[in-house]
Every structure is written in C-alpha cells, then in structure tokens.
Write a structure and sequence with these properties.
The complex is a heterodimer of chains A (about 140) and B (about 130). Chain A starts with 9 loop residues before the first strand and ends with a strand. Chain A has one helix and seven strands, in the order βββαββββ. By secondary structure, chain A is mostly beta strands. Chain A has one domain. With about 130 residues, chain B is α+β, with helices and mostly antiparallel strands. Chain B is elongated and about 50 Å long. In chain B, a hairpin with a 2-residue loop joins strand 4 and strand 5. Chain B has one domain: Alpha-Beta Plaits (2-Layer Sandwich). Classes of the chains: A mainly beta (about 140), B alpha+beta (about 130).
Chain lengths: ~140, ~130
C-alpha cells in the first residue's frame, strides 16, 4: 500500500466490525512519557523514555436502531473494550498492519446534535495495557 | 443506492401535494403546476467504507405565469414550512421508501421568474439533502 485516502478503515470493537461503517474518524495515538535525566555538569537536557500510553478517538454518525451504534456502545460504558484497527478492510499484512488495544470506555455521548445537521459524536478512550502491532 | 430510487421516493412524497404534477427528471416542456427533480451534487464518503453519500437534489416548483396572482398565493403555501408545503411533503417519509437514511429540505434556494420557452413562470427551487448508501 502506498499513500492513501482514508475511506475503508476496519475497526472491530469486541470482535465485531458492525460499527465500522458508521465511523467518520479514527485516531489511535501512542506516546512515551518523557523523563529527564539531566545531571549537574550537563549543558543540555538529557532524557529517557518512561511509561508508554495510548488513546483512541472515534467519531461516529449516530444510529439508535437495534444492533447499531448506541445500542452497542452504551452497555460498554465503564468497561474494557478490545479494539482492533486496520487501515483497510483487507487482510492483515506488512502493508496493512493491525493495531490492537484494550480501551477503557470512559466516555460516551449518547445524545448529540445540531439542528439541521447529522447527529454525530466523538469519543476518546484511554488504552489499558500494551498496544500491539501485527503484520500477519 | 440507485439514484432513480431516490428520485422516485422524492416524487412519491411530493405527489402528496394535491394538484401538483411531479416529474422525476427535467422535462422538455413545463406544464404547471409542476415539480421537477434534478440532482445537483453528490458528496461521497460521508461514512467509513463508502457506506453513505450525501445527495443534494434541486426540486424546482413551477406554478404558473409570474404575473398570476393565484400562482403567487399558492407558492406562499408551498414555501412556508408547515402542512401543505414542499418541505412538509418531502419529509413526510424520511426514508424515501426505505432507500435513504434520512431526507431534509435545507432551504429555499431561489424564488422568482423562470423563463421557459419564452414564458416567464413563477418558480421556486428547494435544496434537498438525502443521506443514503
């Protein structure tokens, strides 16, 4: 795969990709804490990487029909959800890696809308444990 | 989603306005009172996996010669958002017969004289957003 336009992200939540088609944005971030190790005598700051953490942001078009967005996500509030993301819905490969993480569902926005616009909402969930990348 | 199904759904909803002829495509001849459905724009990829597009239709309503007082009075009813209006009719079945996620008349985009075959008709143009696969 080369540079691409994001139209076909595969996102599974607890093993189901049923909500992938309702998504309008996917963002998984990972970072490592910056720990300074600067000592007397140094003229520049020195650092080492500390603990790593991640965060997942998903933007949905809302749907209240059975088995769709609200009915699936609302019961997850306060629980862990396993999320697997691929750039496209094709099989996992070196050009289409999968990222797996367990997210703590800390927030939901079950009702959101502006008059005359689509009803949409965005969630950001912290990950718990490691984010793993697979190519096969 | 077939665009012709969306046109058909819009036409069916518009046909709930008594006395209004509805054509699903732009005709050669205008025979007022008439509503014509034209596709203006399609915004693709409104959801992941190509699962939704936003179609903008222009519905043009022609009621009669621009100088006719009754045409202007009738247009007032069709333009107001309440019962008997174009907005009310189009949104009467918001799934367009199960072919759309939603339909929404966002605005009256133009109103005034429309010249067809040398005749000035009193017309109004409505922007209609349809969300469908």
């Amino acid at each position: 795969m080369a540079i691409f336009v994001a139209t076909d992200f595969s996102v599974s939540i607890n093993g189901s990709t049923a909500l992938a088609s309702y998504l309008t944005q996917v963002e998984l971030t990972a970072s490592a804490t910056d720990v300074t190790t600067t000592a007397f005598g140094s003229s520049f700051v020195t650092r080492v990487a500390g603990l790593k953490e991640g965060s997942l942001t998903l933007a949905f078009n809302q749907d209240y029909a059975s088995g769709t967005v609200d009915a699936t996500l609302f019961p997850l509030l306060g629980a862990n959800a396993t999320v697997v993301i691929k750039p496209t819905s094709s099989a996992v490969s070196s050009a289409n890696p999968s990222y797996s993480a367990v997210c703590l569902v800390t927030e939901l926005t079950p009702v959101s809308g502006t008059i005359g616009d689509l009803s949409v909402f965005t969630v950001t969930w912290p990950t718990t444990g490691a984010i793993t990348r697979a190519t096969a | 989603m077939s665009i012709s199904l969306l046109r058909a759904g819009l036409a069916k909803n518009l046909a709930t306005i008594k006395g209004l002829r509805v054509v699903e495509t732009l005709p050669d001849l205008v025979n007022p009172p008439m509503a014509m459905i034209g596709l203006a724009k399609v915004a693709y990829n409104q959801q992941n996996q190509r699962s939704m597009a936003e179609y903008t239709f222009q519905v043009t309503v022609v009621l009669g010669r621009v100088s006719e007082r009754t045409a202007q009075r009738d247009m007032d009813v069709l333009v107001a958002p309440g019962e008997g209006s174009v907005k009310y009719a189009i949104e009467s079945d918001r799934t367009l017969g199960g072919n759309a996620f939603d339909v929404f008349v966002s605005e009256l985009s133009a109103i005034g004289a429309l010249q067809v075959n040398g005749i000035d008709y009193y017309s109004a143009e409505f922007s209609v957003q349809v969300f469908a696969r």
